[in-house]
Design goal:
The chain folds into 2 domains: 36 residues, no CATH class; 136 residues, Nucleoside Triphosphate Pyrophosphohydrolase (Alpha-Beta Complex). The protein is an alpha+beta fold and 188 residues long. It is globular, with a radius of gyration of 19 Å. The strands form 3 sheets. Strands 4, 7, 8, 9 and 10 form a 5-stranded mixed sheet that branches. Strands 1-2-3 form a 3-stranded antiparallel sheet, with no helix packed on it. A 3-stranded antiparallel sheet has the order 6-5-11. The termini are far apart.
Length: 188
C-alpha cells in the first residue's frame, strides 16, 4: 500500500466568521489521480492548558459549563493565546485569571493538534510548579468557574471515571503523567 498523499490546495476562501474562529472552504486536488473536493477547515488561535501544581504536590483544576456538550467539565485552566503571546506567558495568565494561583517555576510540557481533520491550531501544555493562591480572579464576562485541588492520581482517576472528559484536558493530564511520573504514586 502506498503512502497517503498531501493534497494540493486549489483555492481557499472564508466560508464563515464565527468570532472566535473562522471556517475556510478549501478546494483540494489529489496529486496522483486528480480527484477534487471541498473541505472545511476551522482557523483559530492556538490554545494553552496549564497544569498548576501546588507546593504540596496537588493539581489545581477548574470546573465550568461547556456549551458544546451542555455539561459541566473539570479541566486544567487554559484558554486562547492572545496575539503575539507565548504559551508559557499565556499559561501563567490563564491560571492567575481563572484560579488566583501563581507559580514559582514554569516549563513547557508539549504540544498537540486538537483535531487535525478540521482544526489548524495547536494546544500547548505547560507545567506550573510551586503554585500558591492569592491573586484576584479576572474572569471573562461569560466565564464562571469552580476551583478544585486534587492529587495528580485523583486527576487520573477522574479521567478514567469520566469526570474529566474534555479530550484536550485528558491529553494534558496523561502527558503530565508521562513527563513527570515523580508527581504520581507508583502503580497508579
Amino acid at each position: 500500500m502506498s503512502e497517503p498523499a498531501a493534497w494540493d490546495i486549489l483555492g481557499d476562501s472564508l466560508h464563515a466568521d464565527c468570532k472566535v474562529f473562522k471556517v475556510h472552504r478549501q478546494r483540494c486536488k489529489h496529486p496522483h489521480d486528480a480527484r477534487e473536493g471541498d473541505f472545511f477547515v476551522i482557523r483559530c488561535a492556538d490554545w494553552v492548558l496549564a497544569l498548576p501544581v501546588t507546593r504540596d504536590g496537588r493539581l489545581v483544576l477548574v470546573r465550568q459549563f461547556r456549551f458544546g456538550t451542555r455539561n459541566l467539565s473539570w479541566e486544567p485552566p487554559g484558554g486562547v493565546l492572545d496575539a503575539g503571546e507565548d504559551p508559557v506567558s499565556a499559561a501563567v495568565r490563564e491560571t492567575r485569571e481563572e484560579t488566583g494561583y501563581t507559580p514559582a517555576k514554569v516549563s513547557p510540557l508539549g504540544v498537540c493538534s486538537p483535531n487535525p481533520a478540521i482544526l489548524g491550531n495547536r494546544a500547548h501544555f505547560v507545567l506550573l510548579e510551586d503554585c500558591e493562591p492569592g491573586a484576584a480572579l479576572d474572569l471573562d464576562a461569560n466565564e464562571e468557574v469552580e476551583t478544585g485541588v486534587f492529587s495528580p492520581d485523583e486527576a487520573v482517576a477522574m479521567v478514567l471515571d469520566g469526570r474529566i472528559h474534555h479530550a484536550i484536558a485528558v491529553n494534558a493530564i496523561l502527558l503530565l503523567r508521562a513527563r513527570r511520573p515523580d508527581l504520581f504514586r507508583a502503580g497508579i
